[in-house]
Please model this.
Amino acid sequence: MLKKLTLSKWHCIIYLSLQLLLLPDSVYAASKFSNVHMSGFIMQSYIKTENNNFLGSSVGKGSLGYTEIGINGFVKVSPRLQFASQLLSRRAGKTDDGKPRVDFALLDYRLIDKSNYGLGLRMGRVKNPFGFYNETRDVSFTRENIILPQSIYFERTRDLSVSSDAMHVYGHKQTTIGLFNGTFVVGMPRVTDENTEYALLGDSKSGEFVAKPSLIGRVRFESNDSRITGAFSHVRLFLDYDPAESEAPSFNGNGEVDFKMNIFSLKYNLMRWSFVGEYAQRKVKSDGIAYIPSDANNKTGESFYVQSIFRFNHKWNVIARYDVLYADKEDRDGMKFTKLLLAKQVAVKNYSRYAKDIMLGVQFKMSRYWMSRLELHSVDGTAWLPKQDNADESMIERKWKMLNYSMSYRF
Model:
């Protein structure tokens, strides 16, 4: 019954997408002069891996299990007030089943709107502003890769990362050297699926995480010639773990998680080249959660990547990236953690505590509406590998390779 229900929702989205594609030109012409705009996208990816599964059963023949279909739009109610929303269906192996949900839906009111400075307020389900790419990761055309750097932009906890039910204050100031802007979000992060449990607790549990008021903020600078862009982001998420009745004997009331991350971002653009790097430190502190080993609690993790893009022309570009994640910056190879747990008769592979990814890719924009990408990854470590797709831990290998090809269409 569940499979039939999910399939019917997929049919609804595909049908609506096709109907939008078949609208007469007169409708699109009229929309240019209206206050309503609608668009959408479809992305299908083929992933083939060696040794470990990623976003589907990708070992062997490969998988078509990574698909994104979205419809978004906005309504301009007045010169200062607009409403924007996006409905998304996403399949990503066992981390996402394709069930349609509201990715974001918000009211946006510009309190101050001057030529060189402004201030605005958004309320509803808003995008989380951190790093360079988190706010634009939801559409393949607005991100630079099929798979963003996993050391910072985790796919395995996408919903928690992408948006919050919150209030969002934003502003900008144009100066003689460039544009400064700031964005700050206060609200409740999304913890509606079991992916957060897998990421923090190692498995799906009987209890559930409950969001608490959290804070996300970013300040950003872009030079007047757009050559230099820099940013600093701070993320502070608070969650409660509400144990089920069967778990109660192991808990003294609710457990708590305090997640903190700071990100430094820098980009340098030339006519044909772009160079990007981001560095992050994060700490997960838990209290009263029996599933999180004390040896893993309150450790400072470290992430960074460097990336370069070369544009041959407006259709073709190539990209190279080196992406690194350490669960504990004081134990980069994971051996200390492995030995501590082994002394407690708990077997953990040391390479589950780090990941180093070398990626080479190429992008081809066939037209304004069509785009294809190809990426090759060589990965050492499994720190960001989704456990849902690799249930048998004895089969997980330290070194693995991935080929990822995607075709995207927007309308």
Q: What stands out?
A: The mean pLDDT is 87. The chain has one domain: 35-410. Helices lie at 2-21, 25-31, 158-162, 195-201, 335-342. The CA atoms of residues 251 and 288 lie 6 Å apart.
